[in-house]
Amino acid sequence: MKDSLVSSIEEGVATVMFNRPEAYNTLSVEMLDALPKLLQALSDNDEVRCVVLTGAGEKAFCAGGDISGLATSGDIDKNDLSERLVAWGQAALMLREMPKPTLAVINGAVAGAGLALATACDFRLASHNTHFTTAFSKLAMSGDFGGSYFLSQLVGTAKARELYYFSERVSSEEALQLGLVNWLVESQSLAEKAKQLTQRLVAMPRLTASSIKKNMNSALYSTAKDMIRQESYAMIETAMSKETRQAAMAFFDTSGKESNE
Question: Which among 157, 176, 202 is the end of a domain?
């Protein structure tokens, strides 16, 4: 039996793939149990410089959770199930808070928990073959995995409410206009564009990447006063690093050559 959740590490890039293409890469209970633990392990692994989340095949990135069996049995305790959903939702939190950049590489359908996980990433690269929907209201559900938070941050509260209440399908072009995705390319160019982006992220000094991510996350809820203080401490810490001195020398050397030309 094939693994439904596949991971690999190559040249500093950890790739996590939902591997159920025959089921639109929906998340089974086993996948939901394993995903937070896997992401935590990748966060702790010094070999990993950035994390890519993607889905197998061309039909779907991830069409949500396949947990229907849990909700149909009358003997399941609601509190127990809620806590299990909280535990599964830590995967989204890990994508947002791990001190490494995260990139969702998206092809095909994105729905429900799959959308929430994609929006939890730092960046989203999609193909023209992609479409998005919250889907929850059409299933008489309200949503999970922090999707209401992450989507609101990306497209604004008014649009996020619209997408949750009506669950309309969003095309790849509209997703780009809304700021739901960062880059949009043809399907055949998706892998090459992802490689270009991850190479640039991996090339960044660890401290620089983690400090930028911490600043950007804190900016969502901090005051300007608090952010100025946090940025100041992070700026000094990064400025005093060996990597910064090397980067500065390379930058000014390149700038000098360009000005002479």
Answer: 202
> Tokens standing for 12?
């500093």
Residues 195 and 209 in one domain: no
pTM: 0.90
Q: Which residues of the chain have pLDDT under 50?
A: 1, 73, 255-256, 258-261
Distance CA 205, CA 218 (A): 20
- The H or E element that residue 53 is part of is strand 50-55
Q: Which secondary structure element, helix H or strand E, spans residue 15, and what is its range? A: strand 13-18
Domain final position from 184, 202, 220 = 202
Both 40 and 141 in one domain: the answer is: yes
Whether 177 and 158 map to the same domain: the answer is: yes
Q: Which domain holds residue 56?
A: 5-202
Residue with the two structure tokens 């808070």: 97
Burial (0-12, 13-18, 19+ Cβ within 10 Å), 166: exposed
What does the alpha-carbon distance between residue 261 and residue 251 come to, in Å, rounded to a whole number?
A: 16
Q: Which tokens belong to 219?
A: 């900016």
Query: What would the pLDDT profile of 137-147 be if each residue is shown by its tens digit?
Result: 998 999 999 99
Task: Spell 167-196 as b/e; 16+ CB within 10 A means b.
Answer: beebebeebbebebbbbbbeeeebeebbee
Give tens-digit pLDDT for 29-54. Answer: 999 999 999 999 999 999 999 999 99
Dist CA 255 CA 261 (whole Å)? 10
